[in-house]
């Protein structure tokens, strides 16, 4: 999985699944840094640092959908 992250351009929108105690968690956002032991993903909640040793899956994802227009009452 770190092969994908090492080759991905910074700024690519990604989802990265990592092992945590009791299961897995996903980080969805923009790839900001990839080093020898970790990567950083900018999510809606802020910058998250992930250990590459804990990564079990990673892939590029499409841009978020455009905001929907508000419906006005008739």
From TrEMBL:
Residues 9-59 form the Histone acetyltransferase Rv0428c-like SH3 domain. InterPro entries: SH3_Rv0428c (IPR056934). This is Ferrous iron transport protein A. It comes from Cryobacterium psychrophilum. The lineage of its organism: Bacteria, Bacillati, Actinomycetota, Actinomycetes, Micrococcales.
């Amino acid at each position: 999985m770190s092969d994908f992250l090492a080759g991905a351009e910074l700024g690519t929108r990604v989802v990265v699944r990592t092992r945590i105690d009791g299961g897995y968690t996903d980080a969805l956002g923009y790839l900001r840094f990839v080093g020898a032991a970790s990567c950083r993903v900018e999510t809606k909640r802020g910058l998250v640092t992930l250990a590459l040793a804990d990564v079990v899956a990673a892939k590029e994802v499409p841009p978020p959908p455009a905001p929907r227009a508000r419906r006005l009452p008739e």
